[in-house]
Amino acid sequence: MAYEDLLRRHQDLALRTAALLTHDAAEAEDAVQEAFVKAHAALGRFRAGAAFRPWILRIVANEARNRRRSAGRREGLALRLAEDRRGDDAAPSPEAAVLVQERRAALLAALGRLRADDRLVLGYRFFLELGEAETAEVLGVPRGTVKSRQSRALERLRRVLGRGGLS
Amino acid sequence: MSHLERHRETELEIALHDLGGALEAPRTRVDPAHAARLRIEAGEPRRGWAVRPFGRPARRAVLIALGAVLLLTGLAAALGIGLPGLQFIFGEPPGSAPSSPAASDTIGEPSNPIDALRLGRAVPLESLDEEAGFHVVVPQDVGLDDPIAAVRVLPPGVRLASLVYRPTDRYPAGATPSVSILITQLPATLDDRLVVKFIESATTFERVTVNGAAGYWIAGGLHEIGYADETDQVVVDSIRLAGNVLAWNAGGVTYRVEGAADLETAQAIATSLR
Questions:
Q1: Spelled out in words, what is the top-level CATH class assigned to the domain A2-71?
Q2: Which of A28, A40, A52 has its CB closest to that of B40?
Q3: Are B40 and B91 spatial neighbours (Cβ–Cβ below 8 Å)?
Q4: Which residue, A75, A147, B61, B240, could crosslink B51 as a Cys pair with Cβ 3.0–4.6 Å?
Q5: Helix locations, chain B, DSSP H
Q6: What is the biggest distance separating any 2 CA atoms in chain B, rounded to whole angstroms?
Q7: φ and ψ at residue B212, rounded to 5 degrees
Q8: Taking CB atoms and an 8 Å limit, are A40 and B28 in contact across chains?
Q9: ipTM score for this prediction
């Protein structure tokens, strides 16, 4: 089915988007599934000629945000660090690898303590690698607002991490 | 911002990029796209729950999946796989979809069916091929009067050619008072596009052969056809007349005959196209 094929192309990003906003992987998955169904019902409102990806990600983010509200506040995000399985010469020593993972875990935890809007703009820009223009489209804000939100979110993240930064 | 702070922010951004790459790929219990499809095809009207493999909603999921399988099996048996590039999505019509022009036309007699049906720009029949950019075929010897021709450009540049026929004794008006038959032709490059069709669950389908090509007789309900290209640009085109539609695809062109009272009439028009 065409619609399913279309969704599958964006499913990974949709799941990551939902995971940025929810605190539970199952909740993120449900949010994506629900968003896909709602998007189908809303296809008539889809602007002809527009890009599909920011449109569907926006619906996913709205659904995930609504679910998070109803689920109440919980700590942690539905994002998990993958195991570092590099076994080549470029792989760091076991000690260094542990440090790298600890650093990432600290950053992920700090990210989880930010408010949802901050996580979303940082997630879109750095995790999903969306450009400023597309991020603006997904968030439904002007491009300049993305710049300022990103800057403020980074500042708040730095504060959460402490003056010592990532070191 | 001090030089040190700038440096730190850059370092933080690099760390965020690194973290993004180190995150686990999302793992799911069920495939959300497929689950969404099952729910849509089952015409699931409820919201607020999802198809889950475990837990309380699982029973509903099983029922829906079973229903969808039966539905799909029945459809597959009845219809086959489908036209090349033509895909049909079963389910409730988008509630927020633009209202059917036909529905609004029933309120009063439209002064100009081209505008009323949003068919674009009226063009002389003799220059229709040039305006459409492809050869538009016209019914011959089936008792239809001269048509009003129109061309509409659908983003991202696909040209929809339309032939609108006024009512006669042989071809009475349907839901749209000033129109009896509407023939649309779309040079869809179906190798590159997916065509998505939305129909009401009450709509019935029949697989037919039109001029030697596989086609569908879609009776009753509101329809929309959408095209999704490789860049994910989706174009949705409404079926203009509420009622019956004969749709088929030949030579890279999608044809639709809308408003015929029955399949026999629609087939006669289709086979007369020259």
A1: mainly alpha
A2: A40
A3: yes
A4: B61
A5: 3-22, 32-41, 57-79, 101-105, 113-116, 128-132, 263-271
A6: 85
A7: 85, -5
A8: no
A9: 0.82
